[in-house]
Design brief:
single chain, mainly alpha, two-stranded parallel ribbon, 507 residues, 4 domains, Glutamyl-tRNA Synthetase, domain 3
Length: 507
């Protein structure tokens, strides 16, 4: 590690929803920065205006806020290296592109999109590079005066990097170790488009240099672009300031074959975006982890384990623990298969470990959205702590707790009626009398003892009475210990529910 202050960046394009792989990239950047007392920068790479989607930048910021990964510098937070939207930095890039042309490392290309498409159709595996550049309309194949005439006349053109032929370039990746490339395999990428906007290749190098980025973590799908970026750092004279790179492994489909996509999530029934994303152009709603009922702590925890571990069998980590323990060298090279059942396990574990106060705002929203009226905060906290171990997702709290606030609207009669007898009717009538006219305590342990004693007096096995009693109170075969439920409901409400259910059971 050098003496420079650590500065990392996440640089998404505002083109749609934020994939869980993108959030993992944010997380790894954030953990590395905070561990080294550095800065985490959010930079919006919106140079491709044709793909810009309204609302996408706000969505990205909301995702980071929900995850608790606030950037130190961003278009909203500002910072010493503003602006943080590349579209607002447009005037910066041409200077560097022109410098590369002047050095002979880049050139003007006047080919129209139609001409390029014709070449692709006529030439198998056509690439704009050393094999064909001399036959195309560019400043390498045309006389200088003709090039100048076209520029003076305002002829649309791009600036392309001139990739050298048969050179080997290399770098040390923090995850993959030594990586080398043959430059002949790379085409002459466009650096500056006809509208004056830079492409990703030029902008990422210029901005990383000007913003003093020390470490760049990005997905392995960017590895093929590394030769272009390496040469740009060299050609612009900035090689000594090039950030250390780490190319993160892919998040794979559950079967391990290929990168996990939005289509896979739709096909297999789970989200791949951090939050719901609504595409105004198509009217399509893509579901997210937040709306499905994941806690942000669990979401981050499951993401960090997709490709990293701390060398132990531990799987549950708080964000503070991750900041302390994270090491980029322990990130695997191989892709990590996404397992939705494992993801839900992480969420269930975090729900169990969270206290009622942490969960209360989320659960209150779940219940009120379903029309359940909650009038007592302390009562709600008690309910949450009683049922949370039975919930994998936040919406599970509706089924597992709504009966504490309202009587069941329907009963699982199929679980009761086939085995219902007059003796059971007699037992519950006796139980009602006992509850109504005696000093029987409704406290869980005492009430359970009295319940079993009455069953013994009526010569009925207590085990045969438990399920009907549960269904009387909650409507179905779920919930915590049935006498804990009765104790929390109270004597009068328990009496009311037994009376109501008996009518249904005996009709």
């Amino acid at each position: 590690m050098s003496d420079k202050k650590v500065r990392v960046r996440f640089a998404p394009s505002p083109t749609g929803g934020l994939h869980l792989g993108g959030v993992r990239t944010v997380l790894f950047n954030y953990l590395f920065a905070k561990q080294h007392k550095g800065d985490f920068v959010l930079r919006i790479e919106d140079t491709d205006q044709s793909r810009y989607v309204k609302g996408a930048e706000e969505y990205i910021l909301e995702c980071l806020e929900w995850c608790g990964l606030a950037p130190d510098e961003s278009p909203v937070a500002g910072g010493h290296y503003a602006p943080y939207r590349q579209s607002e930095r447009k005037s910066i890039y041409r200077e560097y592109a022109e410098r590369l042309v002047g050095q002979g490392h880049a050139y003007y290309a006047f080919d129209t999109p139609e001409e390029l498409e014709r070449n692709r159709q006529e030439i198998p595996n056509f690439q704009y590079g050393h094999a064909y550049r001399d036959t195309l309309r560019n400043s390498l194949s045309m006389p200088l005066h003709e090039v100048q005439q076209l520029i003076d006349a305002g002829e649309p053109h791009v600036i392309r990097i001139k990739m050298p032929e048969n050179e080997h370039i290399h770098f040390e990746d923090m995850i993959r170790g030594h990586v080398s490339f043959d430059t002949s395999q790379s085409d002459d990428k466009v650096l500056l488009k006809a509208d004056g906007m830079p492409t990703y290749h030029l902008a990422v190098v210029v901005d990383d240099y000007l913003m003093k980025i020390t470490h760049a973590f990005r997905g392995e799908e960017w590895l093929p672009s590394a030769p272009v970026h390496l040469l740009l750092w060299e050609y612009l004279g900035w090689k000594a300031d090039m950030p250390q790179w780490a190319h993160l492994p892919l998040i794979l489909k559950p079967d391990g074959h290929g990168k996990l996509s939005k289509r896979d999530g739709a096909r297999l029934g789970f989200p791949v975006y951090a939050m719901n994303w609504f595409d105004e152009k198509t009217g399509e709603l893509t579901p997210g982890f937040r709306e499905l009922g994941f806690l942000p702590e669990a979401f981050l925890n499951l993401l960090v384990m997709l490709g990293w571990n701390d060398g132990t069998h531990n799987e549950i980590f708080t964000l503070d623990e991750l900041i302390e323990k994270f090491s980029i060298e322990r990130v695997n090279k191989a892709g990590a298969k996404f397992d939705f059942e494992k993801a839900k396990w992480f969420n269930a574990e975090w729900i169990k470990r969270s206290n009622g106060g942490r969960l209360k705002p989320d659960i209150l929203k779940v219940l009120t959205d379903k029309g359940v009226q909650v009038k007592d905060d302390d009562y709600l906290l008690t309910v949450i702590n009683l049922v949370k171990e039975r919930c994998a997702l936040l919406p599970d709290f509706y089924q597992q707790s709504s009966y504490f606030f309202e009587q069941p609207k329907e009963y699982d009669l199929n679980a009761v009626k086939p085995k219902w007898t007059d003796a059971k009717t007699d037992f519950y009538k006796a139980l009602l009398i006992m509850l109504s006219y005696s000093e029987v305590s409704i406290e869980a342990i005492t009430f359970e003892e009295q319940f079993k004693k009455l069953a013994e007096e009526k010569a009925i096995k207590a085990g045969e009475l438990m399920l009907p009693f549960r269904i009387m109170l909650v409507g179905g075969k779920f919930g915590p210990h049935v006498f804990d439920i009765a104790a929390l409901l109270g004597k009068q409400e328990t009496i009311s529910r037994i009376q109501k259910a008996l009518v249904e059971f005996t009709s």
